[in-house]
Design goal:
single chain; 815 residues; alpha/beta; 42% helix
Length: 815
């Protein structure tokens, strides 16, 4: 066992900053002969990516995995700071355990630390003791505390092997807990005749599981099998995060005999069962209040409390390796803290009017203003404002929000006017067969949650859905149709579809690693669209042959400042390592339009989708652009990377961006890599023959190309169904792009939602597209569809589609 040496403990330090604390504990490790001085910089690098505070005044600073060559031998050092230093938010650190670990020898020490995480009094003693032996004996003790608790071993369990060599330490434990907490059942981990609570990071660390060790995951409860499967997949997948599934754009053509209500497909799947209509919460607010000063103070306290509690919840439930990813409830936290919204509410308070009345008036005004624009994205933002409005309201008056929702006694199809993300996230998956909302759309946060929870969903069904008179119904999330009073034939039809889909998915998934080769030997590359680092690992596990689109926005959104070069480099490098030699195409920052960042102070635009976005923004903020390019080129030294510029409309834009990229490449000392561009605007298509002489490849973003070709906002509630990427006009644009590239012997990929449509995949193959980039969950299906046909048939299908006049006619080509 690794032993803490007496000369590696320093008591009574009078240090006033986290920076000095890291430097001091680093110096201890250097003086002890454990690390080279340069490793201290790596410790700072780790803190930028993932905070190492554990709890009860204890933190474990350590360096980045790729800098282990700077570790001379495995060891630890302890720095005691009685007065403490601020380490994380308002949390003070008193015991700093610096770790230099070449492998997982430090896991036993971490196991002892978790005793302190569960024993606040013991941790306090160590924080102030003047007896060095107390610290030595605590951390070097290999004795396990006995208790009289009888451990119950769960029957539902499965053995797994911990991936990697560094052991089950804090970061993978937090990932495991995040996944476990998605289920209602109890979760345990069994290791060496010890049992830990699988929903507690501290409890997991206490087991001291080393790299490549075998342990068991056990579950008990209503959803125990689902939980066990998910957690086993998480570990077998390398402890990566689960990504949000994206809805396919195709609408299934299905005929039903019963009464039909049509909406927007929001989450796939078919549900059959009883209908339950959920009523809206009742808001009961007293208007009378005290002085404006007292009521403003009351609102400030409520806002602070709501933000604090949500922040605490986020730290508990969502602490992962990559803390910068977009998350629905992080967005809600930003809304609660939004200074503009807060100022509006605070300034609206007058003498004699309550804070809750003034707050709810402002919330209603914000919702009304956004919803009246009839824009799907903004209406969904209104729903999020409603969500945080209720959250704060409950802190102002615990009786202000009265739930009228019924108790769901049996698995049912839920119908409501709309559902907030908070309400959706609290649904019991065992009792909710499907979600139908009168409002909303397929890209709302509620729809995203429904997909992640595996619940079929239909949005935008209209308010008449609230008055249906039907005991049972069929909710077809694939087609966006709710069938009320279904006939016997309808029920048999729906059941048959479900059975067929289950069999088909199992068969396709079993062959996911085989290439997509047509019957006449034409190879189509099928790669993945990803939005964060661990998405690369999921892509590989789902059969991707690389990554065709990395949306780098996840590093830039929902934060107060831009990510630095080191943070970006680490994220890109991690993806390269996950891909293990497979190609990675990184799209440079595509902010603007519907994606905003506060720290850029971008002026408000009347037409943001026609304003400063994509490559225009990068050229406007060159320092930001160069920093990203430096990170990309640094990462390219570790594996095959290509660069792709978004929203290029003018030749001079591509030339200027390419010039900057070349300057950065020379500065970094990296080898040349391919530089391509997105085809998303008509001007790029019409000038494709000129662009392709300078670009190494094209990748067509069909989502934006469709809205610009058809002049229809793809998020507009009234136009969403008409903004169809299978419209012949869009297909002709794709054909022109492929023809231009073919003349220069260069390739074209498609990375928009269209690529995940089985019919479209065949048409795109026939048009000359060489690569289809889809969500990880769609890879097996698209590969299967390509294998069923020949290139000759695809070309004939494409030619037929180009001759048609409407998207409905094109869709009718599907058998």
């Amino acid at each position: 066992m690794l032993k803490l040496e007496k000369n590696m403990v320093k008591l009574g330090s009078n240090i006033d900053s986290k920076k000095k604390a890291i430097e001091e504990v680093g110096k201890l490790l250097v003086d002890g002969g454990y690390i080279k001085t340069a490793y201290i910089d790596s410790i700072f690098g780790r803190e930028e990516i993932s905070n190492t505070y554990l709890g009860n005044g204890i933190c474990i600073p350590h360096g980045l995995q790729e800098n282990r060559n700077l570790i001379l031998k495995t060891g630890i050092a302890v720095l005691q700071i009685p007065n403490g230093v601020i380490w994380k938010d308002d949390e003070k650190a008193h015991i700093i355990v610096g770790i230099a670990a070449k492998s997982d020898e430090h896991i036993e020490i971490l196991s002892q630390l978790t005793n302190l995480l569960m024993d606040e009094e013991e941790a306090k003693k160590l924080a102030t003791t003047k007896d060095i032996n107390l610290i030595l004996n605590t951390l070097n003790s290999n004795e396990k505390k006995e208790d009289n608790e009888v451990v119950e071993y769960f029957e539902t369990k499965k053995e797994v092997i911990f991936p990697g060599t560094v052991g089950f330490h804090a970061r993978p434990a937090s990932l495991f807990v995040e996944e476990a907490n998605k289920y209602n059942c109890e979760v345990q981990i069994e290791f060496n005749k010890k049992v830990a609570n699988g929903k507690s990071v501290a409890s997991i660390l206490k087991l001291g599981i080393t790299g490549k060790s075998t342990f068991a995951i056990a579950t008990k409860g209503d959803d125990e099998n689902d939980a066990l499967e998910a957690l086993v997949n998480l570990v077998n997948g390398g402890m990566g995060e689960e990504t949000k599934e994206e809805i396919k754009t195709e609408i299934a053509k299905r005929e039903y005999q019963g009464e039909k209500i049509e909406g927007i497909p929001a989450a796939p799947g078919i549900a059959i069962g009883p209908v339950v209509v959920l009523n809206e919460d009742i808001i009961d607010i007293k208007k009378e209040g005290k002085s404006s000063h007292e009521e403003r103070k009351k609102l400030r306290n409520a806002l602070d409390k709501a933000a604090y509690d949500l922040n605490q919840w986020l730290h508990k439930k969502h602490e992962t390796v990559d803390k910068k990813r977009m998350d629905i409830f992080i967005a809600h936290l930003s809304l609660i803290k939004d200074p503009e919204l807060q100022n509006k509410a605070l300034s609206s308070i007058v003498d004699g009017v309550s804070a809750e009345y003034s707050w709810w008036e402002i919330i209603n005004a914000e919702m009304k203003a956004l919803s009246s624009l009839n824009d799907l994205r903004l209406s969904q933002r209104a729903n999020d404002i409603k969500d945080i409005g209720k959250r704060v309201l409950r802190y102002l008056d615990e009786n202000a929000v009265k739930s009228t929702k019924v108790d769901i006694k049996e698995p049912s199809i839920l119908i409501s006017l709309d559902m907030t993300p908070s309400e959706t996230s609290k649904l019991d998956k065992q009792k909710v067969l499907a979600i139908i909302t009168a409002k909303g759309g397929s890209t709302s946060h509620t729809a995203i949650l429904a997909r992640s929870m595996g619940i079929p969903s239909i949005a935008g069904a209209g308010e008449s859905v609230l008055n249906i008179n039907s005991k049972n119904a069929i909710a077809d999330g694939d087609s966006g149709i709710l069938v009320t009073n279904p006939t016997t034939n309808d029920l048999d039809f729906a059941k048959k579809i479900r059975e067929q889909e289950d069999i088909k998915k199992e068969k396709e998934f079993s062959k996911r690693f085989a290439p997509a080769v047509t019957t006449d030997k034409h190879r189509m590359e099928v790669v993945a669209n990803i939005a964060n680092a661990d998405g690369a690992l999921e892509a590989v596990n789902n059969g991707a042959e690389g990554v065709g689109l990395l949306r780098t926005e996840f590093l830039f959104l929902e934060r107060d400042s831009a990510p630095n070069e080191t943070e970006q480099f680490q994220a890109y490098k991690k993806m390269v390592q996950h891909l293990n030699g497979l190609p990675l195409i990184i799209r440079t920052l595509d902010i603007g339009g519907d994606k905003e960042v506060s720290y850029l102070n971008m002026p408000k635009e009347d037409n943001p989708f026609l304003g400063i976005r994509g490559i225009r923004l990068c050229l406007e903020y060159k320092d930001l652009f160069k920093e990203q390019l430096r990170a990309i080129y640094q990462a390219s030294k570790y594996g095959p990377i290509k660069i792709m510029f978004p929203m290029v409309g003018l030749l001079e834009e591509f030339r200027e961006a390419s010039k900057i990229a070349e300057e950065v490449r020379v500065e970094v000392g990296a080898s040349k890599i391919d530089i391509g561009m997105m085809i998303e605007v008509p001007s790029a298509v019409l000038m494709a023959e000129h662009f392709i002489k300078e670009a190494d490849f094209f990748s067509i973003g069909t989502n934006d190309l469709t809205q610009y070709v058809l002049s229809m906002d793809r998020g507009h509630q009234g136009l969403a169904k008409k903004a169809d990427a299978l419209h012949p006009a869009v297909l002709k644009m794709i054909k022109m792009t492929c023809d231009a590239a073919k003349k220069e012997n260069k390739w074209v990929g498609v990375c928009g939602n269209l690529a995940a449509n089985p019919l479209a995949a065949k048409i795109l193959t026939g048009l000359g597209v060489k690569e289809l980039s889809v969500t990880a969950s769609s890879i097996a299906n698209i590969k299967s569809e390509i294998r069923k046909t020949s290139l000759k048939e695809c070309k004939e299908l494409a030619l037929k589609a180009l001759s048609l006049q409407t998207s409905d006619e094109v869709r009718s080509l599907e058998e």
